[in-house]
Amino acid sequence: MTLGVESNVLKVEKKRAEPAYFSAHDIHAYYGESYIVQGVSFNVHEGEILALLGRNGAGKTSTLRAIARLDSPMLVKGEVWLDHQPLHTMKAWQAAQVGMQLVPEDRSIIQGLTVEENLQLAQIEKPIGWSIERIYELFPRLGERRKQEGTTLSGGEQQMLAIGRALARDIKLLLLDEPYEGLAPVIVQEIEKTLHLIREQGITTIIVEQNAIAALKLADRAVILDTGSVVFDGTAQEVLENEQLRHDYLAI
Ligand SMILES: Nc1ncnc2c1ncn2[C@@H]1O[C@H](COP(=O)(O)OP(=O)(O)O)[C@@H](O)[C@H]1O
Ligand SMILES: [Mg+2]
After folding, report:
1. Which long-range contacts (CB under 8 A, 24 or more apart) does 88-93 make?
2. Is the pTM of the predicted complex or chain greater than 0.85?
3. Cα 160 to the chain's mean position, in Å?
4. Which one of the ligands is nearest to 75 CA?
5. Could you give the CA distance from residue 30 to residue 74 in angstroms, rounded to a whole number?
6. At 47, phi and psi to the nearest 5?
7. Is the CB of residue 161 less than 8 Å from the CB of residue 107?
8. What percent of the chain is predicted at pLDDT more than 90?
9. CB crowding 64-90: b at 16 or more within 10 Å, else e
10. CA-CA to 67 of 20 to 30 Å: which in 5, 76, 89, 121?
């Protein structure tokens, strides 16, 4: 009898020692006294696109920033694992070296630099990812505007540059915060196509989007946040088919 119980315990421990490809485990984040992310956990499989959804203020950006170790001005607790590496023990630049890049909502194109210089700057630190020519193949518009100052590009082109800059590093996980914000539907479609191509290269993506329908069409799985907690974790298809869920948490 005793032996049986012990071997069960061993089995449980073994399971925990083999984390998912990407795993956010029991993430908590505070802005001063405000308790914003309240114990968020989810996994992402290698090569998958996960949509992280929820209403405005649900804690999506805070969760992405906590994952990317961009904790200032937050206080963050919890574990983040990527490809067996404990990112929660690292600084943001070390997590980036392991292969995680966040494309922030404001796109953060560097002023005074051309498109090409923005990409070159991303490649100053090793490990280097896609070549600049390969990024231009993915986004021909960037190639055409390589000598233009990055901040003078259209919104859609700036988003392409921000994604291109992430690919210029050797990444495993791409974190996108509202990439479609303010873009015309035809540009959204163009970016969607490139996100499919990026997945075909084996890169895993977490996409936060207010345009939930577009994100769900792209994604394999979805996690929905509400007031800093996970209220749904399942397939994108399940969300598309569940009117109640969409009404209650996504207002669509
Ligand atoms: N720098 C900050 N200081 C204090 N509170 C913040 C800060 N940034 C965001 N918040 C608060 O945290 C909550 C979650 O915000 P956020 O993570 O941006 O949500 P989402 O991206 O889902 O819209 C909101 O109530 C917001 O007001
Ligand atoms: Mg946000």
Report:
1. 92/68, 93/125
2. yes
3. 15
4. 1
5. 5
6. 80, 5
7. yes
8. 90
9. bbbbbbebeebebebebbbbebebbeb
10. 121
Nearby residues of 21 by Cβ (< 8 Å), 6 or more positions away: 43, 44, 45, 46, 82, 83, 204
Q: What is the pLDDT of residue 19?
A: 66
Residues 165-191: tens digit of each pLDDT: 999 999 999 999 999 999 999 999 999
Looking at residue 170, its amino acid is D
Write out the two tokens for 216: 């769900």
Tens digit of each residue's pLDDT (9 = 90 or more) over 20-37: 999 999 999 999 999 999
What DSSP string describes 8-75? HHHHHHHHHTS--SEEEEEEEEEETTEEEEEEEEEEE-TT-EEEEE-STTSSHHHHHHHHTT--TT-E
**108: pLDDT strictly greater than 80:** yes
- Count Cβ atoms within 10 A of the Cβ of residue 148 and give its class: 0-12 exposed, 13-18 middle, 19 or more buried: middle
Please classify residue 156 by burial: count the beta carbons closer than 10 Å to its beta carbon, then call 0-12 exposed, 13-18 middle and 19+ buried: buried
Q: Is the CB of 60 under 6 A from ligand 1?
A: yes
Tracing tokens 């505070």 back to the chain, one arrives at 30
DSSP 8-class letter at 124: S
**Residue 134 falls in which region: left (phi positive, over 0), alpha (psi -120 to 50) or beta:** alpha
**What are 73's two structure tokens?**
């001005």
**Ligand 1 centroid to residue 244 C-alpha, Å:** 25
